[in-house]
Fold this sequence. Notes:
single chain; 168 residues
Amino acid sequence: MSQTKNLYxxxxxxxxxxxxYVGITDHINPLNHDPSHFLECYRKELLGASSANDVxxxxxxxxxxxxxxxxxxxxxxxxxxxxxxxDLPLALVEDIFDFWFETYKNPLAWSKCIRLxxxxxxxxxxxxxxxxxxxxxxxxxxxxxxxxxxxxxxxxDIFSMDKEPMWQ
Length: 168
């Protein structure tokens, strides 16, 4: 087993459904990992196997949190059973990838940001009383993580989570 892995972000399509995929591979070209489905590679970084796995998990958690929030706010978002919704803009997915890759380079920042990401899945950092509780670099990281969770589609057709009555 190789000691280094490529962490990658690709666009893919399977059964006519487009999606973003973040993964790790031994292949020099991540497209060779699944050539029948992977279309284009947008990010590729060489890391140790354990590091690549940690960063991939953080990216996936961040995107999963974001998708949950978007759907919870009532925005329609096409789900993909294979990766992340193609409805998310490439620039956003790249920003999330870049943030976690760069943060991993600083062990103290990584430790704080991972804990903040887990905390963010339960509580929004947009509440000023929460943000005021953080100090120094933690407050800056919390703000950055909140920005990574702030995207909402520009769709005006927000659907209602309320069910229609069975009869009137």
